[in-house]
Amino acid sequence: MKNIKLIEVRSEIGAGTRGASMGVDALKVACLNKQSDYFKRFNSTEVANLNYVLFDRNLFPFAKYIDSVLTVQKSIASTVKQTMEQDMFPLVLAGDHSNAAGTIAGIKAANRDKTLGVIWIDAHADSHSPYTTPSGNMHGMPLGIALNEDNLCCQINNPDPETLFFWNALKRIGGEGPKLKPEHLVYVMVRSTEEPENTLMREHSIKNYKYDEFNAKGPVQVGQEVLERLRDCDIIYVSFDVDSLDPKFSRGTGTPVAIGLTVTQAQELCYTLCQSPKVCCFEMVEINPMLDIKNTMAKNAFRILEAATEAILNQSELTENLG
Asked: CA-based Rg of the chain, rounded to a whole angstrom?
């Protein structure tokens, strides 16, 4: 059986809306209300956050609080790397989605010679850079960091040298060069993008399972197809942003987008994906109880988390049966 370790990341400095730092605790409240022992079953560790910097003036308009984001990302990467080197499965519960860049860096640092695939279940493509961002919020940049992609052909901003110093340092966490190749990235339910992101998706033929195709095929078939697309990858990381869900199930996230997954679809998708022995890390992000009523998003997210965890724990049995 997989030895899961929960990594709690309460950093929300990459988000544009406050409150995602409370997402982990909202999950714990949902767990308690369900009378589940989930958070007693697994060892956990917390990565230090720098959320107090949000009280300071931001100095980097095209990459907000990037100096502090860099510090947090280094800590996340180190924690994920150490967890994997101890032969444990890192299950990351994080605030905003910028934290995923640190997770990816940590996975690669622990698996330098292995090819990484990434499954990005999200309403957004999150592949901006300081050169292309319309908002400056760093939760729109984690894949730009992982892909080592400035996307200069779509440049709309002129970041200052200090911003670029920190940006380049972010891209070096976990080793020089890209941590991920575009052909090893698959999107699910991405439906709110800007032109620079669309350009990257077109240029690199990055697959995105949109609403109509997803509904026609169903979560199990889509999950199987995604895994087949990443068959050349040695290891796979699944990143689940709760804004992949349709807002009618809850608006408890910073950037909700209409026409998304149902909770049941998300459960079945994450279960199908996480059954694969190649999946080495699962992350859930962007739960914001400040924007919610009766902790609905966390309750729904906890159901999805339980499904993913069950599949992760079943990986060992599948591997043994295959052997």
From this structure: 18
